[in-house]
Amino acid sequence: MKLKLKELFTLFNKKSNAADLSITGITADSRSVKKGNIFFALIADNDGHKYAADAIKAGAIAAVVQKEIPGVDDEKLVKVTDTKDALLKLAAYYFKKFKKLKVAAVTGSNGKTTTKELLAAILRARYRVHKSEKSFNNYLGLPLTIFGLDSGHEILVLEIGMNHSGEIKKLVSAVKLDAAVITNIGRAHIGNFDGKEAGIAKAKAEIMEGVKKGGAIILNNEDRFYKFLRKKAAAKKLKALAFGTGCKADTRIEKYALTGRGSEFKVRGISGNIKMKLKGLHNIYNAAAAITAAKFFGISGANIKKALSKFEMEGFMRFEEVKLKNGITVINDCYNANPDSFAASIETLKKAGYRDLVVLMGEMLELGPFAAALHEEVGAMFAGLDIKKFFIYGGNSTNVERGYKKTAQTYDDREKLKADLRSFVKPGDTVFVKGSRGNKLEEIISSLG
Fold it and tell me: pTM of the entire structure?
């Protein structure tokens, strides 16, 4: 990391006689502090100020705080009004050091992480790529990704998320984007937008604030907010590129086939069929979005096909199929959930034709007053599948069961759920698991063996 302590002090108007030390990294977790790190005391689920003294003892050369820290030398404290804003400010300062860096970012209601990973994989054919790890897409993840840049990187691929209006605009203020992708507009976090998808569309469109004039915005031309987003892009003098099945799409999906092993599709302008290990029509659209961005950055059709044929989405808990030693297959899709992502996953399950399918569904969060109706809607979707047993966990279990209109098992006790699932599932069964991140369903999966 090419950052000096005096730069941090100058940025936040701190006067100090401290030696001109090199900063070795930035962290908000006192447990991961290494010598030479800067610790940011963020206030989230837990107050980082409680751990600032421990971070200094562990080797941090300074802590950025907004409260007094008893027992810590004031020389090692950088006091600010808001540590979260300060972290983003430092990230913006650090980003400016990389003058020749190309930057792409991905947002959308569904498919952000998969599309980001696909794009990064394709771009490696030509560039040295740095990307957001896992789903590092918020006020902490985006700065930490930026701090991971070094002089050898040629292109940065970011994932940008949001829960409320204004968040994306604030995040992209730290960077300058050459291209941005909006995968789709769906109902994730709809409880924070008074049930209006138009509000979500406006919030996602904030990513255009970070795109340079003349840069590209990549849009799904089958999304019902496509015309709205394209108009926004025109007003900002951005180049709008489209993907989808429409005849005017820049990356036009001309045909596709889905199998239990993956997917195969053809897009106009690339010779031959593109094969992927990823399953589901929704992942073909994610790939089309990534292809559109990759072509903007000059990647050839041959390199696109090669990268996609080798791509695997492991360790992300997104429709990840794992065969356990006891003969049980688990489809781990439990990173997050909303009505639209459930619809995509259920359609994939139908096309793949799994036998002896057991479903574990966790409730969807951040749906506000629309939660009951939307859980009932998802329950009705599952009614179209041939399910051996349906386990439902969380506060909206009865609403899911109401929509399902068949016998299901509902739970609010995790240990009881674990025990019943273990006793029911047999070798040869396939267990599909999906729910919002707050359910932590991966802990239940681990009990299966």
Answer: 0.86
